[in-house]
Amino acid sequence: MKTLRISLLALASLSFAARADEVEDKINAALNFYKEGKLAEAGTGLQEALNAVNEKRGGSLAVVLPDAIGDWKAGKMESASLAALGGGNSVERQYKKGEKKATVSIAANSPLLSQVAGFLSNPALGGLLGLKTKSIGDLTAVIHAKEGLLQMVVNNSYLVQIQGKKLSEEELTTLASGVKVDLLKTIK
Asked: Hey, what domains does the chain have and what are their CATH numbers?
């Protein structure tokens, strides 16, 4: 009897380990709907699978936003799909120092990123719009001081944005410098 219980436990753990993850389950369900000719359900299933992938990716992005940046203390991490904007995902975190608040966000894998990256890499156009460029480590950031906004592109894959009311250029720069862009560069 003891041998039977051990065999059942081993079999149960083996089947649990062999179980596909959530993304694979959603893709397989969508494929089955497609084979049955249920195209609306197949499309919904694929979108759910994509959202699950983006959620997992958002979790990996979270490591680049620390719990504190200098005197700025971090709040709760939020992750979202950018499916409505053509794809990708984002993660953001609120930071607070005294009465001042700032939002640090990272958008990844968005088709819109290439359009923004071209704009951000053109200092002449930025100058016409009252934007200033500044080096943050080996990256170039665009600052719109009146709007309390700093943006920078990392590896042509990620848009890092810091925004807050009445933030000085120095505060924006401090927050941007606190994002762990070296880790961001390694995320696939």
From this structure: 2-57 (no CATH), 64-186 (3.30.200.100)
